[in-house]
Specification:
mainly alpha, 3 domains, 17 helices, about 80% helix
Length: about 425
Amino acid sequence: MGWQPSDMKDRILATVGSPKDLEVLYRNSPNEFATALREAFDELPDSSVLQVWHERLFFDEKAAVSSVAKLLHARDIWLTVALSLIAGTLAKLPILLPISGELFYPRNLCGIMAGALTAYFCIQKPCRGRAASILLSLLAASLLFLNLLPDRSNSASILLACIYAPFVFWSLLGIAFAGGNWRSLPARMDYLRYNGELLIYTTMILLGGMVLTGLTAALFHLIGLDISDWYMSNVVVYGAVAAPVVATLLIDRVVGDQFKITPLLAKVFTPLFLVMVVAYLVAMILQRRSPFTDRDFLIAFNVLLIVVLGLCVFSVSERGRKDSSGVTDLMNIALVFVTLLIDAVALSAIVFRTASEGLTPNRMAVLGANLLIFLHLAGILFHYIRFIRKTRDFDAIENWIVAYLPAYTAWSLFVMLGFPLLFWFR
C-alpha cells in the first residue's frame, strides 16, 4: 500500500538530510513521492537537496512548459487570429453577399485556405519582399482565372480545372514553406513531412470542434434557444478555416522536432494497407470485376491508388536515413510494388476506354495523372531495391521523391489553365 501524499510529504521533510533515505522513499513509491515532493519543495524552497530532486523529476515538464510558451508569444497569436479572421470572412462571402455557394466554394475555398497558410510562411520565414509578392500574386492570379471561367455546370474541363487547382495552390504553399528556395530538395522533403503533420493536427482540431459544436447546441437547446443556424454560419465557418492555420502554428512553434505523429502512423498503417490492397486485388479477381468496363469501379480504383501513393510517400519520407534496412523497408517495397500493379491495371483500363470510346477531358486528365504516378512509383521502387542491395544510400530515394514533385505541378497547371481552353469549356 502506497503512502498518502501528506504522509509522504512529512517523511520527505523528515529525511531531507539523508539522500539515501530519500532514494529509498522514491524507489518504493515513485508516483506518491513525485506528488508529495511539490508540497515539500514549497515548504523548503532553499533546500539544495529538494532543488536537485525537483529538477530531476520535473525537468521534462518544465521544458514542455517552455515550449508551449513559444505558442503564447503575442506576435504569433495575433498573426494566427488575423489570418483566420481574414480567411473566414472570405469563406463567408456567399453568406454575406448574393453569391452562389455552389459556384464560389469549388473555385475559391482551397485557394483561401492556401492563401492564409502562404501568408503565414511568408511572414514567419525569410520569404520576404519580391519572392513573397510574386507568390501571393500568382495565388491571386490563379483564383482570378478560376472565377473568370464561365458558369457551366456540365463542363468537365472546368470541373477538372477546379479539381486540379488545389495542387497548384499546394505547390505555391511549398515555395513559401521553403522560404522561396524551391530548388532545395531537403526543403521539399521537410514540406512533405509538414503536410503529414498538418493533416493529423488539423483532423484532431476539427474533431475537437465537432465535439464542442455538439455540446454547445445541446446545452442551448436545453434552455430553449436554437442557435444552430447562427453557430454554423459563423463559428463553424471561422473555426473550420482556422483549423489548418492553428495546426501550422502548433507544428511550427510548439511541436517542432520534439515529437512527430506521422512516422508512428506510417509504421502502423503501412502493413495494414498492404494487407487491404492485396485482399482487394484478390477479391476483385474472384468477383470478376473489371475497371475496363465499369466506370465507377475505375474511379474507385484511382482513389485507392492516390491514397496508397500518399501512404507510400509518407512512409518513405518519415524513415530515418541512417537506419539499416529491415522489415519496414520490405513492407514499403511490397506496398509500392502492389500500388504499381494497381496503377498498371488503371492505365490499361483508361487506354482501353479511350481507344474504344474516344478522348474526353476526364480520360485525358486521368490518363496523365496515372502515367505520372506510375513513373514516380517505378522510380521509388528502383531506388528502394538498390538501397536494399546496398548499391545506393537512402538519400537517393528521398531525392527522387521530391525531385519529381514539379512534374505534378506542371501537369496540374496544364489541366487548370489549358483544359478549359483546349476543350473550349466542354
